[in-house]
Amino acid sequence: MNKQHERTPQGSATKRRTAGRKNFDTAPTIISGKNYLSSYLDDCYHHTCLSLYQNPPIGEIGLEEFEVWAIERLKILNEIDSALKRNKPFQEIELIVLPMLNKSLPLILSKDQDKNTENRRKDYYSHFILKLCFSRSAELREKFVKCETIIFKVRFESMSGVEQRQFVQHMNLPWEYITSAEKAEMSQQLYTSIQPSLRFQLNLTDEISRRDYFEKEEFIKIPFEYVPELISSRSVFLKQGHAFVPKFQQINLLTLEFTGNLQKTLISTSHAFPTLDEEDRLIPILNHLGAANNFLEDDSVFDELMNSEVNSVTVKSTKITRNFPLCASHLMDGLTSAHHLKYLARKQFSLFLKWIGLSVDEALKFWASEFTQTMGMDKFEKEYKYNFRHDYGLEGSKIKYKPWDCRKILSQPRPHAGEYHGCPYRDLSKDSLKAQLKSMGLKDEEVYGVLEINSKGDPTASCTKVLELKTNGLVNEIVTHPNLYYDRMRVYHKKLDDTEGETAAEAES
């Protein structure tokens, strides 16, 4: 077979993949004109600022828009996920997310129809693009549903009462707002059924405020099978197969509808993804956006950490160790008490120290000063020196090794007796972890808060909460890497030291 025939199958495959594609640089943005797209999006958003994203997007966008729009939405999901991991209540999340939505994905309607169409188009496409990214594993699908549901709730709560009613009516659900006469006829039963919710859910502590709220509240008539949870908790009045739900409860029902729909479409997308014939265009972008698994983990931070303040002596000083995450503190404690660490712990700690700025020469001094307290220098140089130089890319394949991130650490075997590698939030007993957290300077109530988060089985959420507490709430970022934690603490303490220095100088003058 000659070379020309050898190339034919590949060339044919490429032609098949690109056949029928339009050039995004020259093709019209909208497939059937602005009026058609505007009308289509009006239907998708029910002429309001909210959508269930049930229909696929239409029209064409460029690859740059494809990626940029997805990244902008991904940043918002990142903030939401961070807030959820820190157990922030919805009211606080709403204060964080709403300004971001209004800036990056605004849907506030204006008289400019072209602007409304473009904003909706960006929001609609970015949702479906990230749906492709997050459909590929159960864990990602769960994260996407949680975060997108928060966006749905935030937007719904920001709408006027008229817009909310209009949205509900366009959903074609078997819901019906009752009349004032119907409300008056069932007044006592309705008030009795929702009184506990007014007291405990809306925090209306006195009878007068509860009565005032009830008089102004609207009620929705819904088939009872739609609200099993409200029925089981006796939070609604039932009559002739219908539940009468107060309007303030409708967001919970809408959320269930939105979540159920999104879960189904994510599963369908996951089944369709392997057949996506876009290896030369969309797949590389989606793989890049696959950083969604770590929610925009910033790899560039490590290059910024190489500095001269860390050496074989200062690495054990309070100025440096106060920035350590708990896993690094645990490793340092193990090293200084046993004057030795086993392979996995050495690897984990050596790479961590390397990327906070400990040079290879200073690292060898540091490790030798500890190890030679239980062995001779000859043994250290013969059995251990090569490994530390290897970590710095000076031996063997000479790879520039990066420090282990949280996923890598959690993938390692759990430590046995005398081993210190791993993640303390996963590996330590509750009492041991409690003692470690107290040694970090956390107050009792803060320690119990971290332990409660840790009991849910997400070690990174616990570490994230500790970072928030240690920085007095100034750092709100998901910890996905020990060196990321170190860098944020280092910056925080530097600003704190600079402020204290300026205050002292002013006092002296």
Automatic annotation (TrEMBL):
Bilayer-crossing regions: none
For whether the record's keyword set contains Isomerase, the answer is no
What is the protein's given name?
Answer: DNA primase large subunit
PANTHER family referenced in this protein's UniProt entry, alphabetically: DNA PRIMASE LARGE SUBUNIT
Which Pfam families does the record associate with it? Answer: DNA_primase_lrg (PF04104), DNA_primase_lrg_N (PF26466)
Extract the GO molecular function terms from the UniProt entry: 4 iron, 4 sulfur cluster binding; DNA binding; metal ion binding
User: For this UniProt entry, which residues form the secretion signal?
Assistant: none
| Binding residues for [4Fe-4S] cluster | C327, C406, C423, C463
Give the cofactor note text: Binds 1 [4Fe-4S] cluster.
Task: Name the species this protein comes from.
Answer: Wickerhamomyces pijperi
Read off the CDD domains from this record: PriL_PriS_Eukaryotic (cd07322)
